[in-house]
Amino acid sequence: xxxxxxxxxxxxxxxxxxxxxxxxxxxxxxxxxxxxxxxxxxxxxxxxxxxxxxxxxxxxxxxxxxxxxxxxxxxxxxxxxxxxxxxxxxxxxxxxxxxxxxxxxxxxxxxxxxxxxxxxxxxxxxxxxxxxxxxxxxxxxxxxxxxxxxxxxxxxxxxxxxxxxxxxxxxxxxxxxxxxxxxxxxxxxxxxxxxxxxxxxxxxxxxxxxxxxxxxxxxxxxxxxxxxxxxxxxxxxxxxxxxxxxxxxxxxxxxxxxxxxxxxxxxxxxxxxx
Amino acid sequence: xxxxxxxxxxxxxxxxxxxxxxxxxxxxxxxxxxxxxxxxxxxxxxxxxxxxxxxxxxxxxxxxxxxxxxxxxxxxxxxxxxxxxxxxxxxxxxxxxxxxxxxxxxxxxxxxxxxxxxxxxxxxxxxxxxxxxxxxxxxxxxxxxxxxxxxxxxxxxxxxxxxxxxxxxxxxxxxxxxxxxxxxxxxxxxxxxxxxxxxxxxxxxxxxxxxxxxxxxxxxxxxxxxxxxxxxxxxxxxxxxxxxxxxxxxxxxxxxxxxxxxxxxxxxxxxxxxxxxxxxxxxxxxxxxxxxxxxxxxxxxxxxxxxxxxxxxxxxxxxxxxxxxxxxxxxxxxxxxxxxxxxxxxxxxxxxxxxxxxxx
Amino acid sequence: xxxxxxxxxxxxxxxxxxxxxxxxxxxxxxxxxxxxxxxxxxxxxxxxxxxxxxxxxxxxxxxxxxxxxxxxxxxxxxxxxxxxxxxxxxxxxxxxxxxxxxxxxxxxxxxxxxxxxxxxxxxxxxxxxxxxxxxxxxxxxxxxxxxxxxxxxxxxxxxxxxxxxxxxxxxxxxxxxxxxxxxxxxxxxxxxxxxxxxxxxxxxxxxxxxxxxxxxxxxxxxxxxxxxxxxxxxxxxxxxxxxxxxxxxxxxxxxxxxxxxxxxxxxxxxxxxxxxxxxxxxxxxxxxxxxxxxxxxxxxxxxxxxxxxxxxxxxxxxxxxxxxxxxxxxxxxxxxxxxxxxxxxxxxxx
Lengths: 274, 360, 350
Known about the structure:
The structure holds 3 protein chains of 3 kinds. Chain A is of the alpha/beta class.
């Protein structure tokens, strides 16, 4: 699958958000998009699956312009996992994930659709939750169900908007690793927005750093996560070390780090009670 | 921040306060002017003549009975003024209640009728008008008022009791209030559908808010409640500000949210009950006046409270003016006028809010 | 596969429920024939029906009451109840709002305005001309104005889902204000007539008034149920629905047009009967869950059953019977409160 974005621009009324984004992404991989708040990461993703229409430029998937494909056909190629799920009415996990089969489903495809749904649930290790009510699940389980819903669309490109933001560290790693493994196993271009630079750097194949409506840096994690880039884009001092071939970011706060922040010995009010 | 910046920051703040106070005073002047204009509309007396008559009356001048001046004085003060003054007080009271509810519910689209008070009042009034049951032996204006008053407090009491058992959050209150509104409305329908055409019309006319049957004896209760509430609310205006920040923030700033909310509900319920028992259900003021005020003086309740009272009075006095100038087309009560004015304004508010936050 | 069997089992349970309710509905229909001022036995009604069908009419008087008066009312109660509840289920799922009902897009205030104008003109301008068909046509026409405005708007420029709802609310307020004006300036009798129209009644149903609303409802209802999957996907929210291949704006436009058309077709005959469209889907949801494929037919069946029973109660209440709209409101309210309370515990809706 090949995603080609050529010179897209987007703005809300007169405020420009994306100024000139051009990129060519090929083949199965995990691609993370990082950048400061409000820089347009979600906007970029929404331009790919046509939720938003760029004011200039084109988005092409496998040589077809995104605007020329019907919405249903687009849904067969591009899956989307939103930031949070907010379901008003109680629905079981299976029913929730089944929704994702809509682009492919016909009136007699229920059996095949169910097979695919259960396979995906097993893959993500949540098969035991199948008949449970979606609203009763924990945040980590929510996220996996949303991911399942995106996967059953059998997309070539999967877009995720901060899939690990409200997960604990174990689940953050678990979900991101699954995304990376899936991208290879199922031949998917996985594009993920992330705020956690280290997790993204650890598992991604490529990283894109957005800043001021443009692509500031793009390439392998070790090329993108550098002291200079972090300072320029986030205005944060840092040190980057190597962890098993991947960059790991250590944040520095010069003023605080040089202080002596120890409290007087007798003020430790939290003690173990005997 | 350097000292110079600090001082000029303080100066800016002080001058903005002065600006706001000046603005409120101007609004107050407009209100008084509008009131006098309103008195002259539909009476056939010119503005200057009306002004003269009112001023003379206030300074206590009396006339020879049945002289033209005496008639003017009598007419203005017994027929026209009660309605105008009632509109003034009702507008202030309803706007005040609306301001409190919006801050307390942390929801800018809440209004004072959210708890079902209006439906309870309707039920009380309708029962009195159609079935002749009343808590007083006098089935007349007073009987209806008393019924409406007691009726309006029933939903309020239910809300307060339910909140104790189910939970205190604004969404619970809105939920219970909505359900109660439906319920009491259906009871009202039941009573009205079994009524004769004549009493049905009386009941319907009562429901659609009007001030045409006002008399000076109706004023004391409304006026006392409104002024007392206004003073209480103005004193607590800073607490209201904190409430609007959200429950967690309010608690962490030391406010007993549960108790305060309860007090607010009780206060607004009694205030509104004392108004709508006389006027019927006048809508939109409690919703729209606070918003208009906030647009002009900002969100600090210290200014919004008196501001929305003035704004509410002005709007309702104008509505009464419109209602009376349309007298030649038929009796169009103030409630209907407010529907026509209030609806577009309310819609504008929703549009502005929804476009700020894409709720869908 | 083990998991799949669980799912199939639940589906079978759901269809069973719908079947049982349908049977209950038929039984209730025959039961409703026995209720009224002229009391008949349940078995007797059954016998009268059979007699009528075989052409062997014994008691002309009873036959007339059962077949010509009560049967059409019962049948129409089922139709109206089904239409309102089905419409309510679609609106609630699509707009993701448990307080939505088929009247949400201004259908009720439009119908009321049309009927009010007809009543006022009929009584004021032409006091002898009290043709109820004019009232029906006016109510039908006016109830579709909000939808028409929305559709026209959407052809000229693209509308978001939010804008669509706002236009509906706007039209509702405008129409309500005008109706209020009409009612306040009307004479006593006119006001009483308008008021009782608004409450909603089935008492005026005859066999002639059934075919048109039945036809429109069957067509619209069938299309809506055919669309169950896209309505279901709408429950995930605008963005998610879009990414699963469902155009939110287009879907909302199409479905509310269908719901409004269907609702207008029945409401112009009966008046705006409340609560069925609101509470029916919620009751169905308690038993069936929110999955649209089963929720839609279940809501229809439960709506029909609800209104049928409400009509029975209405017929025996009060001196001459009460309009069914009052009963549906009085039963519907506590039910609604009960369901809301239960829902708050079950779902994350806060």
